[in-house]
Structures are given as structure tokens and as C-alpha cells.
């Protein structure tokens, strides 16, 4: 009974906050909604008028995007640069937390997200994805003396992930459909913190994208190994705001040009080589 | 005007029941908030206890040393360093150091690390508050106590401390409310506290409004509750003032 009334109080508080917002903005409804629908149909025009296009990313994901000095660089940034070149505008890069990328895209603060983002059903409900440009996998990192040799060994283990990544989604296993059931998921803001806890023996394994996994293992090759079998395989794509067809077509054009000319492969190979992967 | 619309798009209100369902009901996602709230309260409660004990000790050391500079020289020096370091560095950094450096190879739970970090942090602020409270008690009170035949310790415990506590209660209350809110950085070491609980839902639904507003509302309710309780306690303690 008491619990129920507490919940009711919370619900009421939220409802009040929401309705207060409604009052203050109700007056402008007609005008703004008209303006925003007009803006939506001319995304590209607006970008050209502004002279720049904005991409959002999380620059902690070498080689797709990472900080080189004070600049963000990487495979995704090179693709984004081609998109900007095609439109004849400057490229602006927004570096934010991975789990806020889609939120920011949908709030209109950026034109697209290029962040080594895997296509998933949940994400597709919220954004439109371009053609895929890379096949990636979620790798498992363990310590050298670990009994974990196969993905199935993760059953009942304490696993670290980067919050909001597909590795997080898989291990969290919300609908209980995945075969592997870990005992607990530790959600880190940064992959490097998860790896630090792995080396200190606080967690049993880290599930993270294959590329950064290779890098982490390489930097600590005396302590860590990456399992040969990946946990999941997935495809990376660029995300645009739902219904922004113009932007999506532009990006798909750039991607198919880069694929057919072999430029995309060259870029990926270049960064792979730099990583030694 | 446009900024207002961007802040909370109108479509949100018509979709609210659906968003609410997606954020909390679907696949029992509200559990993220419940677990988070539990951890936040747990960390805050024990950190407050550590803060009170540590803070009182430090305050007593500093006051004794001030009254008689020959006493407790080494302890006073340690206390001064502690105050300077803890108050001079951000609590997030202290938390990260506690987990990744101090307890690097210790086999303890993250929550314990957080309780230690926040408790040690809080202790520094509580110490200064209590010290100011003790010093706010008129010197005549101590003299009166001593001349009545009480020793220094009894004077402190029976005469100075009760009056000091009454004076500093509002400031201590503020410190604990601040502590409760500061625990929201516990997510840095992957603890699922209330803020992180909301973040997890947000990272699944990509809907920033519902979970963030709910988390904010819960913090607000707790703080309002604490404020009311502290107000009552304060009034109770001040009853003896009305004569």
C-alpha cells in the first residue's frame, strides 16, 4: 500500500513537470510545427546555407574515431569528410558519450551519427541507418590465466561492457532470448576502465568491439588475451534522423562510390595497418 | 520560443503514455531505477555515518590543538593535510583514485569503495562544520563548566557539544543533502546508482525526457523529505530556547 502511494507520487511529479512544460510552449505550437516541417524537407539546403555539416561521434573508438592531438580522426571521420566534400561544406565533429549519440541526433543537434554504430532492431526504431560499411564483431577479452576459453564460458560470469554498446545489450539480455546468461553486467563509461578492472581481477571478462579489443590486448599483451570466437557479429552503418531521406540518400551515394572505387577498403586497410591488426 | 520547443517537443506529450511504458514497464525496466535508488541510499547512508565519525574526530583534534598548541601536534598535522587534500580535489577524482588506485588489488565491492570515498570526502566538510559549531559556543560556558568541578572531557561532552550540535544542525543537514546528490557520480566506476539506472534506461530507449525527469523527481522527493525531517529535528532541539 505504502509502496503504491510512493510510486503514485513519483508519477504525479513527472506528470506535473511535463504538463508545466506544455503550458509554456502551447502558445507557439502552430508556428513552430509549421517551421520545423519546412526545415525537415530542406535539410541539405540548410546545411549548404550554414556552410557546415555536423556529425556526432564518440571519439574513444580507435580506429573508427579517436583523438589525434586535438583533432578527431579515424575511418568514420574520413567517410564523413567525403559526405561534407560532396555537399561542398565544412565538417564539424561533435564528440559526446556513446549512449547519448541517438538522443542528440534526434534532438536536431547533429545531421548524422558516424560512430562505428552497429545496426540493431532497437536502434532502427529510433533512427534510419545507411547501407552498412563494415562487418564487426563483439570480442571477448580475458586475462591469460582465465578459465574462459569460449563465448559459452561466459555463463554465470561477471562481465564488463561499455554502456549502451551492442555488447551491453547482448549481455544485459533484457528479453532473455540470448543463449549466454552472464551473472552480472558492469556498465562502464569507457572501455579502458572496464579493461583496468579486468586486469585488477574485479571482473571476469570484457565484451567490447573487436578493434578496440585488439588494441587493449596489444597494450597489455603480457596479461590479456582476446578469444578467437566472437560473441556476436554485426554490421556498422551511419545513422540519420528518422525520415531524413535526403541526408540518407546523400550518405548512401557517398558510401557506394567509395565502395566501388575501392577507396573505403583502402581507408580501412590504412587504419588497420596503423593499428597493427 | 524555438528553443523551448526543442527542449520539450510537443509530440512528447501525446506520446507520454507510450514513452512511460517503454521506459519503465516494458521488460520491467523500472527495476533499473529501483536497484539504482537502493544503491544511492545505501551509499549515502553509510557515507554519512563515516562522515559524522570522521568529521567529529577531526574537529575534536583541531579544537584541542587550538586550545593547547602543545597537544596533539602530529595528529593535528595529519588532520590539516587531510582537510586540505580532500577539500582541494573533486569528489569524482577521489572516487576514481579510491577504486582504481587505493583498492586496485583489494577484493572489495564497488559499493564499499564508493562508501569509503564519499564518507572520507564528507568527513572533511563535517569536520569544519563541527569545529565552527564548537567554537561558536561562548568561552564562558567552558569556564562555568570547569568551575563547577567538571573535567575538560565532561565539559566538552555535557556542555559544549550539545550546544554546538544545535548550532550546526542546519549546516550538517546541508552537507548530507549535498552528499546525496554527489553520489550521482558513482556511475564513473560502473556502480548502478539512481542516475546510472536512469542512464541505462536512456541508453536502451534513446528517450532522454522520461528517465531523466523521473530521476530528477526522485532526487527532489528525497531531498524534500530530508529537509522536512531536519526542520522537525531543529524545532525539537530549539524547544528549550523558549522560556
Could you characterize the architecture of this molecule?
The complex is a heterodimer of chains A (277) and B (243). Chain A has eleven helices and twelve strands. The longest helix of chain A is centred in the N-terminal third of the chain and has 25 residues, at 2-26. Chain A folds into two domains: 42-135 and 235-275, D-Maltodextrin-Binding Protein, domain 2, CATH 3.40.190.10; 136-233, D-Maltodextrin-Binding Protein, domain 2. Chain A has helices spanning 2-26, 29-40, 43-50, 75-87, 101-106, 121-124, 166-172, 191-199, 210-219, 245-260, 263-275, and strands spanning 52-57, 60-61, 65-68, 71-73, 90-95, 112-118, 127-143, 158-162, 184-188, 205-209, 224-226, 232-241. In chain A, helix 4 (75-87) packs across helix 10. By secondary structure, chain A is an alpha/beta fold. The radius of gyration of chain A is 21 Å and the shape is globular. Chain B has 243 residues and is mainly α. Chain B has one domain: MetI-like (MetI-like fold). Chain B contains ten helices and no strands. In chain B, helix 3 packs across helix 6 (110-136). Chain B is elongated and about 75 Å long. Chains A and B meet through helix 1, helix 2, helix 5, strand 9 and helix 8 of A and helix 1, helix 2, helix 9 and helix 10 of B.
Amino acid at each position: 500500500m505504502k509502496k503504491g502511494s510512493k510510486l503514485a507520487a513519483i508519477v504525479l511529479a513527472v506528470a506535473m513537470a511535463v504538463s508545466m512544460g506544455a503550458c509554456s510552449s502551447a502558445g507557439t505550437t502552430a508556428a513552430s510545427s509549421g517551421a520545423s516541417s519546412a526545415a525537415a524537407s530542406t535539410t541539405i539546403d540548410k546545411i549548404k546555407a550554414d556552410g557546415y555539416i555536423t556529425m556526432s561521434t564518440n571519439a574513444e573508438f580507435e580506429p573508427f574515431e579517436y583523438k589525434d592531438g586535438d583533432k578527431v580522426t579515424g575511418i568514420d571521420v574520413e567517410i564523413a569528410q567525403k559526405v561534407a566534400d560532396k555537399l561542398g561544406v565544412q565538417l564539424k565533429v561533435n564528440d559526446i558519450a556513446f549512449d547519448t549519440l541517438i538522443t542528440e541526433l534526434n534532438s536536431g543537434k547533429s545531421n548524422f551519427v558516424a560512430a562505428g554504430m552497429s545496426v540493431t532492431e532497437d536502434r532502427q526504431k529510433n533512427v534510419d541507418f545507411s547501407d552498412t560499411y563494415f562487418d564487426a564483431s563483439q570480442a571477448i577479452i580475458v586475462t591469460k590465466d582465465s578459465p574462459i576459453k569460449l563465448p559459452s564460458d561466459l555463463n554465470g560470469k561477471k562481465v564488463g561492457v561499455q554502456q549502451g554498446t551492442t555488447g551491453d545489450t547482448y549481455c544485459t539480455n533484457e528479453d532473455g532470448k540470448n543463449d549466454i546468461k552472464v551473472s552480472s553486467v558492469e556498465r562502464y563509461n569507457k572501455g579502458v576502465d572496464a579493461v583496468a578492472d579486468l586486469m585488477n581481477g574485479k571482473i571476469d571478462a570484457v565484451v567490447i568491439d573487436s578493434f578496440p579489443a585488439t588494441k587493449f590486448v596489444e597494450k597489455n599483451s603480457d596479461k590479456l588475451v582476446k578469444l578467437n570466437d566472437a560473441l556476436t557479429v554485426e554490421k556498422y552503418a551511419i545513422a540519420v534522423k528518422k525520415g531524413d531521406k535526403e541526408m540518407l540518400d546523400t550518405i548512401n551515394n557517398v558510401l557506394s562510390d567509395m565502395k566501388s572505387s575501392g577507396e573505403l577498403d583502402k581507408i580501412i586497410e590504412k587504419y588497420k595497418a596503423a593499428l597493427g591488426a | 520560443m524555438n528553443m523551448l520547443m526543442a527542449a520539450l517537443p510537443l509530440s512528447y506529450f501525446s506520446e507520454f503514455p507510450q514513452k512511460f511504458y517503454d521506459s519503465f514497464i516494458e521488460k520491467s525496466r523500472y527495476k533499473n531505477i529501483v536497484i539504482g535508488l537502493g544503491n544511492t541510499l545505501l551509499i549515502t547512508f553509510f557515507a554519512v555515518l563515516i562522515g559524522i565519525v570522521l568529521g567529529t574526530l577531526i574537529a575534536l583534534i583541531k579544537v584541542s590543538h587550538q586550545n593547547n598548541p602543545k597537544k596533539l601536534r602530529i595528529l593535528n598535522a595529519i588532520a590539516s593535510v587531510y582537510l586540505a587534500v580532500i577539500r582541494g580535489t573533486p569528489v569524482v577524482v577521489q572516487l576514481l583514485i579510491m577504486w582504481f588506485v587505493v583498492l586496485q588489488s583489494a577484493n572489495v565491492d564497488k559499493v564499499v569503495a564508493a562508501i569509503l570515498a564519499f564518507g572520507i570526502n564528507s568527513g572533511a566538510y563535517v569536520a569544519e562544520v563541527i569545529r565552527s559549531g564548537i567554537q561558536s559556543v561562548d568561552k564562558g560556558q567552558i569556564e562555568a563548566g570547569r568551575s563547577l568541578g567538571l573535567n575538560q572531557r565532561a565539559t566538552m561532552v555535557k556542555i559544549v557539544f550539545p550546544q554546538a550540535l544545535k548550532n550546526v544542525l542546519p549546516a550538517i543537514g546541508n552537507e548530507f543533502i549535498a552528499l546525496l546528490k554527489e553520489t550521482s557520480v558513482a556511475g564513473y566506476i560502473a556502480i548502478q546508482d539512481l542516475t546510472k539506472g536512469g542512464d541505462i534506461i536512456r541508453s536502451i530507449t534513446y528517450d532522454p525526457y522520461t528517465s531523466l525527469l523521473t530521476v530528477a523527481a526522485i532526487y527532489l522527493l528525497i531531498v524534500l523529505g530530508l529537509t522536512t525531517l531536519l526542520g522537525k529535528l531543529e524545532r525539537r532541539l530549539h524547544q528549550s530556547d523558549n522560556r
